[in-house]
Design brief:
Blueprint (H helix, E strand, L loop, with lengths): L10 H22 L5 H11 L2 H11 L5 H11 L12 H19 L3 H14 L4
Helix pairs in contact: 1-2, 1-5, 3-5, 4-5
């Protein structure tokens, strides 16, 4: 699949991939920080990898996105959700889906440099992480 073909990948497919990418980055970050045992790692990961937290992170990223990234982000935010979220508002769920869509898109494009930059922006904004 060429770079131009990624615009035809569904937003929810990109979000599915981006969810895994984002969680992997969070888990890697906590392990590199020397965060305690597995139970502690899980609690910290869950505190960051949820719709409410990701919605806040999405707000931080938007002003830092280029035109293409913003278009992908908006595609994710406007994606038709087939299930209602259990533990978050619909608005938070859409914003989290947008963030995950962007991370999935950047991963497919092999833009790990950009993923690292955006993830660093997120980390800098989170108190206590």
């Amino acid at each position: 699949m060429s770079d131009s073909d990624y615009s035809y990948v569904s937003s929810l497919s990109l979000a599915h991939l981006g969810d895994a990418v984002f969680e992997l980055m969070v888990r890697t970050y906590f392990i590199k920080q020397g965060t305690g045992d597995v139970t502690d790692l899980h609690k910290k990961t869950v505190s960051v990898v949820n719709a409410a937290s990701q919605a806040q992170m999405a707000k931080i990223l938007v002003p830092n996105l280029n035109e293409d990234e913003l278009a992908v982000f908006k595609r994710g935010k406007n994606a038709k959700i087939n299930t209602l979220p259990k533990n978050s508002s619909l608005a938070d769920y859409h914003a989290a889906t947008a963030l995950e869509t962007l991370f999935g898109y950047l991963w497919l494009k092999n833009r790990t440099d950009r993923l690292d930059y955006l993830f660093t922006l997120i980390l800098e904004s989170i108190n206590g992480v």
